[in-house]
Amino acid sequence: MNVTAVFASPHRDGHTAALLRDFLHSLPQDAHVDMFDCYALAPKPCTDCGFCKTAGRCVSGELDALFQACERSDVLIVASPVYNYSVPAPLKAILDRAQPYYYKNFRGVDAPTDPRRKGYLLLTAGRSGKFAFEMIKKQIGIFFKVLGVTYTDEIFVPHTDETKETLT
Predict the structure, then answer these.
(1) Each residue of 50-83: pLDDT tens digit?
(2) How far is CA 108 from CA 81, 102, 103, 126, 144, in A?
(3) Taking the C-alpha atoms of 96, 129, 40 and 38 in order, what is their torsion angle to the nearest 10 degrees?
């Protein structure tokens, strides 16, 4: 089983990291996990240069390894805190940089979503975050769809600001 995990928190020992760690421990022991830290990747924002419309890939190559891992993954996990009713900027840049996949889908090049490829959203929020969760769920659902991944399930942990202890 090939697993791609996209980690979108600047806190490697925080609530989102603990949630992702617990989720990864629930996978079969022989799962191969490719972990991508959004903050370490430091993705450039999409500039709508148009290169991907014809080339099928982004002119900027720093996310190539991430998207190649997404293409070969059986399981795609997006783990993120909620920031201002959305996701942190590095993850938002990655979502925007999936534009080549959007164009392929608009042209009908790619096959429909593969039910064998699973997508999971893991979110933490300092407060209730319910409204933000619904918005993010829709956005990540579209991201999964253009990558050919079936949105399978989500785990949402609100009120993390109300505890001093990290999730275990």
Answers:
(1) 999 888 889 999 999 999 999 999 999 999 999 9
(2) 33, 10, 9, 40, 16
(3) -30
